[in-house]
Amino acid sequence: MPIFVTPFAPLELIRQPEQSHETLQAFDAADEYLLNQFAEQGGGTNLRVLILNDNFGALACALAAIEQPRHLITSCSDSHLGHMALKINLQRNQLAADAVNFVPAQQSPQGPFDRVLIRIPKTLALLEEQLIRLHGQLAPGAQVVAAAMVKHLPRAAGDLLEKYIGPVQASLAVKKARLLIASPEPRPQPVSPYPSRYSLEKPPLNLVNHANVFCREGLDIGTRAFLPHLPRDQQSLRVADLGCGNGVLALAYALNNPEAQLTLVDESYMAVQSARENWLAAFGERPVDIRAGDGLAEQLPESLDRVLCNPPFHQQQVVGDFLAWRMFQQAHSALVTGGQLWIVGNRHLGYHQKLKRLFRGVEQVASNPKFVILKAIK
């Protein structure tokens, strides 16, 4: 396993979810650049440090390894898997579990902070919301430094830092990573454009979408293809929306199946917040289980009758079907014999063949030139 060499301690780090024969590292040159800059700046003891979007805990673990001077470290992320990785990596490196205060991204970290280290996320709306929430949370003389690999660094990230924090200076590229160093200046209290909202006619739903929700401005085309073909069971079945996003699949299913018992799971805290608000608006106090989690990893075996899923094909900047395959495995474990997994997927991804490796029957429910809707029977 590669060791992450930092100015403070060598670290053994793993990604989440864990995979056998993992080829990807839990850190990159942007993490290294941020930590080197932090070490060069120095700046006192007991610094109050905020870390945003620390993918697998590399930054927080490195700062937690500093024995003298100790710093007060807060990590804020929208990823449940990232939170899991932080806890696991602290333990792997014999660092105290309480060395880092974790704040899920739907909450606002409470400063004031002397240093803010930011990994620029794939979704710039998330970055914008995080910068808006920094208003009034920076201590006098605070430093705000953001980092990304150059190939993943959009110009708009610097524009957002300048708009909400202050003038920005871009560093030279080192190992294909770059820093954006913002000098805080007084700014008027910003008004957040999030959450966004949109409405559907069929089914009739008004949907709230917090900043990091996939397709927050309108229904994604995969879900649009899926909705007309959701099962109509008309009985008290136990049904999960796996990777629920704003909850639209579960909401549409629940409207047509009033006796169903729904579980909604997503690894994004902002998605879970959106789903909760949307369920409350649509169904009031109708019982439901909505939670942030590692898919169905915590679901009891053979405890579900149906699983609905529009699986992702990326984790942060990494594209692949490993998350989808893991979801299919989780669904198979959680379903009763005879239970069904319903999915929508891009035709070219070949989910039909993958599902046949797990399930005794796979049927194509519907298709169009881009998507297929599949039903897999355990």
Helices, strands, pairings?
Layout: E1 3-5, E2 10-12, H1 29-41, E3 48-52, H2 58-64, E4 72-77, H3 80-92, E5 100-104, E6 113-119, H4 124-133, E7 138-149, H5 155-164, E8 168-170, E9 177-182, E10 196-200, E11 205-209, H6 221-226, E12 238-242, H7 248-256, E13 261-266, H8 269-283, E14 289-292, E15 304-309, E16 314-315, E17 318-319, H9 322-334, E18 335-346, H10 351-356, E19 361-367, E20 371-377
Parallel strand pairs: 3-4, 3-6, 4-5, 6-7, 12-13, 12-15, 13-14, 15-18
Antiparallel strand pairs: 1-2, 7-9, 8-9, 10-11, 16-17, 18-20, 19-20
Helix pairs in contact: 1-2, 4-5
EC number: 2.1.1.174
Function: Specifically methylates the guanine in position 1835 (m2G1835) of 23S rRNA.
Subcellular location: Cytoplasm
Notes on the protein architecture:
The protein folds into two domains: 3-182, Vaccinia Virus protein VP39 (Rossmann fold); 196-377, Rossmann fold. The protein has ten helices and 20 strands. It has helices at 29-41, 58-64, 80-92, 124-133, 155-164, 221-226, 248-256, 269-283, 322-334, 351-356, and strands spanning 3-5, 10-12, 48-52, 72-77, 100-104, 113-119, 138-149, 168-170, 177-182, 196-200, 205-209, 238-242, 261-266, 289-292, 304-309, 314-315, 318-319, 335-346, 361-367, 371-377. Helix 1 (29-41) runs parallel beside helix 2 and helix 4 (124-133) packs parallel to helix 5 (155-164). The protein is globular, with a radius of gyration of 22 Å. The chain starts with a strand and ends with a strand.
